[in-house]
Amino acid sequence: MATLLKKSSTPKLGKTTTKGLNKSETKKLTVSKTRAKKIKHSYKVKDAENALLLKLKDGDVVIEMFPEDAPNHVARIKELVRAGFYNGLKFHRVIDGFMAQTGCPYGNGTGGSGKKLKAEFNRNPHKRGTVSMARAMLPDSADSQFFICFGDCDWLNGQYTVWGQVTSGMEYVDTIKRGKGANGEVEDPDEIISMAVIADL
Q1: What is the pLDDT of residues 67-116, one digit of tens each?
Q2: pTM tops 0.70
Q3: Which domains, ranges and CATH numbers included, belong to the chain?
Q4: Could you write out the three-class secondary structure of the chain?
């Protein structure tokens, strides 16, 4: 017959030792090498180190970058992406038939990362799916803001640095919430869920 233990004889649980662990001491969930390979190959890009995965509310967008045409811009974009800079930023300016602009940490088009880039204008045209740098009046004023073209925008050619092209998922770019008026300011705008270099997945 089972007997009840007295309160004094019951063992007490010690305090948890997991609280206050340093970030470096905690285990991270990892993806197997085989799974990681499958993920990278599923995007079918020419160069995983120079391709981005842009996650939007409706689906994944793949952007292949042009390091040979805009090396400094591509290097800086990758640096910002790897730092998590773009995650959660808003598409603050979206004009139907023209483009969707993002990359401002304030969500209103007035900010950047704090590093201006020298223009790398090139022969790549502004067409549907083109990814190009936004800038102020001065050519060497691009920072972190960029835009994706909804259609052909030939009048921008040679005046803005084209650094990439959407190669899949353009249908999800098409569903980004539009702004109102000529300036395209968006009320309650859509956000970038996350951006990653495909080689890092």
Answers
A1: 999 999 999 999 999 999 999 999 999 999 999 999 999 999 999 999 99
A2: yes
A3: 34-200 (2.40.100.10)
A4: CCCCCCHHHCCCCCCCCCCCCCHHHCCCCCCCHHHHHHHHHHCCCCCHHHEEEEEECCEEEEEEECCCCCHHHHHHHHHHHHCCCCCCCECCEEECCCEEEECCCCCCCCCCCCCCECCCCCCCCCCCCEEEECCCCCHHHECCCEEEECCCCHHHCCCCCEEEEEEECHHHHCCCCCCECCCCECCCCCECCEEEEHHHC
